[in-house]
Design a protein that fits this description.
- Helix content is about 30%, strand content about 20%.
- It has about 240 residues and is an alpha/beta fold.
- The chain folds into 2 domains: about 1-115, Cobalt-precorrin-4 Transmethylase, domain 1 (3-Layer(aba) Sandwich); about 120-235, Tetrapyrrole methylase, C-terminal domain (Methyltransferase, Cobalt-precorrin-4 Transmethylase, Domain 2), CATH 3.30.950.10.
Length: about 240
């Protein structure tokens, strides 16, 4: 069982996810500081956290995800049931659920159920005044940097780029955050003065969200306003605008 926790506050848990967590005796979390994890601890649940692995310089993201998969599969085999709780929606900006499904398929006798949660995107649409029906590109900052030929947006549609503020490269302990190389990549398409909006969530405990209007070329001047819960929004080019060459 993989349950989505929503974008942070306990109040945004779905009824179904809350039921799954209430019925579980042990729940695996990426970070034990999540407010839902704290709620479950107070309720006497056994909460298992992997946050120490993220702080270990020897581990890559892939290493951490593989260990989470192994732990969940082992729990399911030994106890007949395992619950992994992931922030947001388990199928939005997440690799672990797919890896668990693949591992469960290899085992042959483990059924995986995904309990969807509200992702960070649902909160952004009204905040930004964007309706996906108008055309929207959703990207991960790391993908834009690593695969610019395939992932740099054309500028013709609304664009949301998630997971700013994370270290560049495969390790969660890297020193350089991804903002500067992301901006460098975007400037191949967007003019320096193209509008940009940084949406930063302060995270635990209150999850207050700040919105900062700036430009693509000035994004690096706002690095102090970027954390791992920051998203970038780029409006589409005006109809008569030309792409930067």
């Amino acid at each position: 069982m993989i349950a989505g926790l929503g974008p942070g506050p306990v109040d945004l848990l779905t009824v179904e996810a809350r039921k799954v967590l209430d019925e579980a005796q042990r729940v695996f979390f990426r970070y034990g500081t999540h407010p839902v994890a704290k709620m479950l601890i107070l309720a006497g649940k056994d909460v298992v956290s992997f946050e120490r692995l993220y702080a270990d310089p020897a581990f890559t993201y892939g290493d951490v995800y593989k260990l989470i998969v192994k732990a969940v599969i082992k729990e399911a085999k030994l106890e007949g049931r395992a619950v992994l709780a992931l922030p947001g929606n388990p199928y939005v900006f997440e690799k672990t659920p797919r890896w668990i499904e693949e591992a469960a398929s290899d085992e042959g006798d483990i059924e995986v159920k995904i309990v969807a949660g509200m992702s960070f995107l649902e909160l952004l649409y009204p905040l930004l005044g964007v309706d996906p029906e108008e055309g929207l590109v959703i990207l991960n900052a790391a993908r834009v940097i690593e695969e610019p030929d395939r992932c740099i947006p054309s500028g013709g549609l609304h664009c949301i780029i998630g997971q700013l503020g994370l270290p560049v490269g495969p390790k969660p302990t890297g020193e350089q955050i991804n903002l500067e190389p992301l901006v460098e990549a975007l400037l191949h398409t967007y003019p320096h003065d193209h509008c940009a909006v940084l949406v930063r969530c302060r995270g635990y405990p209150d999850y207050v969200t700040d919105k900062l209007d700036t430009t693509v070329g000035s994004l690096t001047d706002n690095s102090r306003n970027v954390n791992n819960l920051t998203t970038l929004y780029l409006p589409p080019f005006p109809v008569d605008a030309q792409r930067v060459e």
